[in-house]
Amino acid sequence: MRIDAFHVTALAIALLGAAVTIFDLIPVNKFYFFAGYVVLQYVVLATAWNIMGGYMGYVNFGTAGFFAVGAYTSVVLYNLMKAPLILMIPVSGAVCALLGLGMGYLTLRLRGVFFAIATLAMAIVLETLIVNWDYVGGATGAYILRSREIAPFGDYVEFLFFVMLVLAIFAVTVARWIERSKMGRGFAAIRDDEVAAECTGVPTLRLKLVATTVSGFLMGVAGAPFVLYVGFVEPSSAFNLVYAVNSIAMPMIGGATTWLGPLIGALLLGTVQQVATVTISSELNLLIVGGLLVFFVIAAPEGIVGLVRKWRGRGR
Amino acid sequence: MTGERLLEVRSVTKRFGGFVALDEVSIEVGKGERFGLIGPNGSGKTTLINCISGTLANDGGEIVFKGAVLDGRKPHERTRLGIARSFQIPKPFRSMTVLENLAIPLEYASGAGAREVEDRGMAILESIGLGNRAGESSGKLTQIDMRKLELARAMASEPELLISDEAMAGLSSTEVDDILEILFRMNERGITIIMIEHIMRAVMRFSERIVVLDAGRKIAEGKPDEIVNDPEVERAYLGE
Hints:
- Chain A is mostly helical.
- Helices cover 74% and strands 3% of the residues of chain A.
- Chain A has one domain (5-240).
- In chain A, the strands form two sheets. Chain A has a two-stranded antiparallel sheet. A two-stranded antiparallel sheet of chain A has the order 2-3.
- In chain A, helix 2 (31-53) runs antiparallel to helix 9, helix 3 packs across helix 12 (241-254) and helix 6 (156-180) packs across helix 7.
- Chain A starts with a helix and ends in a 5-residue tail after the last helix.
- Helix content of chain B is 38%, strand content 26%.
């Protein structure tokens, strides 16, 4: 992998994030970190979704299922051994990668809307399992008591914000690498025409399994710190359909064929939602998502990235 | 058929439910041959090439390519072994440019490194008359250019056997000559070609040997002039 401006920028943002959270460079209300965490979480989820949905054209409605399994893996690890976050993240990622592989193997013979429905069904099945599993709290949910502060970050939420920032940078870097690799071109061929892809030498089944696995891993990673962030997790919040809807809407609004799309979409839509939650009402979120989605599907089907390309006259 | 065999289809049967699309069809194609496959609509031509390229699995019989049995192998593996096909209804990768379309088989089937792709892709496009379209979006090509792209993309996988599925349907007569010339040139470079076509003028001129399918059975096989005078073939096309 060659090092270019992207990697330098990513590193700079990570360092800046560390500086801000550790040294409290900018004296802001702690709420901004609290809200920023959610936005960054959506950067990870939208980017993960886009690897399958945008690059390969397989619409996954089960984002909430992966996210929740990531969160609940953390609960299990905590109950078992009071595991630290640094362990929760890779294990949650690995569990969700396996889940993605399994889901891919079982459902990838399905195409289009049938695949989407199967992924939605998977999320519902998983939720039912969790609801009936007492070890992780069942329907009543599970508490995790975390410290209020952690060195050297001070406030724990600032620490979580930094962790999610690193995860977001990681996710975007992975997505960008895939997009520019031979694999990414194979994904695009599958999206455009699966039969033609197979007949020009693309091992479609293997690539689809790679995509579901990587996508699942990143979604699980995004869910891992969730229970520490809220302190309490229950099935209906972890499996909330909002995660699925948002992680579809964000890449569509940003532009689904590039790594930049879900990043822009998540930053934009995520921020608007956070602002709306505070200033108007928390119930307004989905209305905003719906409205923006309708607008973009009509006015800019290739998202903001596509719109900008068109303005620059480079639109294809 | 004389000379070395490249492809053997041995008693291949394909059923769709109760419908028998191919009924113990056997054909042999020699190395370097120009082979024509004709038959009325619904006679099983496309089903047969789907079985050869692996997008359909045959229910009976076997398909042998370069001495190796292909049954159970996925289409992409068959492409890598040297079987390429074009599609009756063009299936370009629409989000890509013409050159990027070729990059897929170049990278995935003929093992080109990312740096060689452009040179090799351009060479193929030039040879097929699409050189000046390389940067265009493949979804916006004209019909003739889309057919050419189908052939160019098939070429990019460096096949030994090219199956051209009605590459000329719906084209004007000068365009038909254009495509014919491309196929002749590919054949001169040593590529064996199976041509499936409804345009008799083209198949008769192109093929050294022709097999006729009707209702899933092979009803005739021979040189073009033999086929034209075959009473069975006449019956299949024109009725009793």
